[in-house]
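Tutorial sheet, problem 5. The two components below are modelled jointly, 930 residues in total.
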Amino acid sequence: MSTLATEAAHTREASSDVTFSVRNLWKVFGRNADKVVGTELEGADRERVKKETGCTVAVRDVSFDVRPGEIFVVMGLSGSGKSTLIRCLTRLIEPTAGQVLLDGEDIGEATPQRLRELRRRKMAMVFQHFGLLPDRRIIDNVAYGLEVRGTQRSERYARAREMIEMVGLGGYEDSRPGELSGGMQQRVGLARALAVDPEVLLFDEPFSALDPLIRRDMQSEVSRLQRELRKTSVFITHDLQEALKLGDRIAIMRDGEIVQVGTPEEVVGRPANAYVADFTSDVARTTVLTARWLVREPYPDERTDGPVTAPGTVLAEVLPMLAASTAPVRVVEGDTLLGYVGRDDVLRAIAEDQLDNAAAVAAIEEEAAEVLSEAAAAHSSGDAGGSAPAPAGSDA
Amino acid sequence: MVALIVAGYWASRLLGHPSWAGGFPTLVGDRFMAWLDTVYAWIVANRNDSPLFLYFFNYVSVGLGSAVVLVDRFLDLLTWPGVTLLGVLAAWRAAGWRVALLVLSTFAVFALSGLWNASMTTLSLIITAVLIALLVGIPLGILAGRSEGFHRAVRPVLDLMQIMPAFAYLLPFVLLFGIGNPAAAVVTAVYAIPPAVRITALAIRGVPSGAVEAATSMGSTPWQVLTKVQLPMARRTILLGVNQTIMLAVSMVVIASVIGAGGLGDAIYQALSKVNVGQAFQAGLAIVMLAIALDRVTGAVGHGARTPDVPERYRLPLLGGALALVAAVAAASRLAGVRGWPRDLSVDLSDPVNAVYGAVQETVGSTTAMLATWLLQGVLAPLATLLTDSPWWLVVLAAAALGWIFAGARAAAVSGAALVAVGLLGVWSNAMDTLSQVLVASLVTIVLGVLAGVVMSRSDLLAAVLKPVLDAMQTLPPFVYLIPAVALFTIGRVPALVAAVVFALPPVIRLVDDGIRGVPRPTLEAARSQGSTG
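Model answer (structure tokens):
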């Protein structure tokens, strides 16, 4: 099956570089839902809309693209509209306005038959509370998607067995969901979604209901399956660590709006506003930011014989190299030298980590830039390098 | 409020019962009754040539009559060994060997009491009525479970159907279908439909939305969601609805003897009207056994408990084998000329019971008679007089005021309007008579029920003893309650009141017990820590 999947992935990549395209999506709950979008209330905050129309704005003017083969994580606190958003993608909840394109096809325009066809073949969803059918055996649960699209029993059982094996539940084919632990049940949910060999996987907080240790196992499982199968995925979570661990790109939602879309490094290293900064303040930056993020041109007269590392190395691993050598690390991708990362760069990244206030971070950055230019000047005038940062420290 | 009515009564009495301060004026009621009489006359006159009757009601009537007869014939065809074997095997498969033994003893009671044929008629009526009720009720329930709009539309109808006392159902069906088994089957089916609809809807709604959503997200059609997700997951609850439907059918089939349903109900009805306690006891025992057996078998299917664990691959052969065995037994019995249980092999319990009844009457008869007289003359009669002879508008106002105090303006309007409607129907004094009995019965029930409930909640042993008794009492068909009441007080208002109290007592006891046991432990602890007595 995996050969088929990769073939499909190749043709997809050739035809377009976007799998899911969401354009100006709105979801307003309530009787007068159509009286919000396109009116002057469009820009009003949730409380005002609620007061004037009785409607709740769950998703507000959301647009993003999901690229083939990536895990696109949507992260937000409860009530931020993320679960509504993912249901709008398969029209489990009908969007109020906007477009969802899957491989260029407008899902909103699909007839009920076409929508069923899309759900049966192109997308599969994994749910927070598993959504298994308790009266069916595991194998019948996994084969459900094939059953509703009319696959022969022997064929669908063969496929279901393969999937059960793949998620590590071999031997439990004849058990009932109630006999399995939460983690195992979610593996069944995963196998059920994979059994139909969908193009897109939608995860709705799949691990929120699990114990922390099991959650970590399941995250690794998803990473592994992603490496093997390269399915395009949209992954909803409220757990930032999970988002950073799994996401190729992360969208952060607040009050129905997307406030920032970016790679984990961008979200942590360059938060779009105080909300995101606050959100990411607890993250140990040294475990997220990589050498690529800090790479810079060499200062004049700087030593250029430091240790070599790949651009994807996280700072936590760069630190010991810098401790062992006074020269900055050389960041090399393939045969190309991308630039250098020195002790002061890493120190600054760590210093920002200690501050939970975006304004303070900005101030420090400004100051650091000044100090750096002074230092650069000092370097060029031939002064001793070690004394330059000292005034900066006392000023702060 | 009471003082007000009493004052009104005396005022009216002192004024020499002026017409504006007496019972409800009967003018409108008389006209209404006259109109009803013409409707009835029209129906009787047109029953055999109005197309509505010729092509609809009469067909339904004949069809249902033949359905009942068909089921009866089938049971007859199986002969008594066949029926017994089928019943016992089905009970064993569905509910285990204990219930199978219960079913066996039920059939033994049918046979030995000499009521085999009557029992089979009752069983046929129940089967026909339950099939109709389920055929109509379950689809309606599924619709109500899936569509909020439909649910909202049927709910008031179901509420009304469940509030209506059983006897109120009888009349319209007699008009439409005449007297006899078809009318009884329809009335029983209609009476038994509400739980089928309600519980099916509840079951469908109770299916976790996550499962439905997951199935939808995988591209299931609505039909697939229903058949592959909702119905399988709702199965157990729906079966409990079937159990409720059957129990309602059992009680209605007994009441329907009043409109000519044959069978055990008829036997009780005849015996009671002749004050033959022995015969009533026999038929009552049979119907009680039937009710309990049906309840245990279908209830066990719903709970899924104690079912023998048959491996999946033996299930079909087992079913086939059992059916073949029943067929073989039936064929053999027919060849041997056995059909119903031979009457001369029955044990007549009615004479000994009548002897016991006579003895009881002799020893406690004077006491109960005294009690009855006192109750009648000291409580029931004065209350009835008070309600009947007070100015009618005062009673209406009092009812409305009580409604307002207990439940607000809406209830006040409803209770006032309902009493006025009663007056307009021209049955004011009958209604006040009934109301006086209901008031006394309710009061006695609440006092006894609360006492028994409190005692029961304090002693686990007593609770363990009382629970099965209450269970049994709640499965009894209503007529059966009359038997001991008649035995102790002969006939009249007092035994009716006693029967009503006994009928209403179990739920009160049970709810009081549940309520007291449901008090949170921390609350009790807090009370004790402040020095409350146990």
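Marking note: The domain at 68-279 of chain A is CATH 3.40.50.300 (Rossmann fold). Full credit if you identified this.
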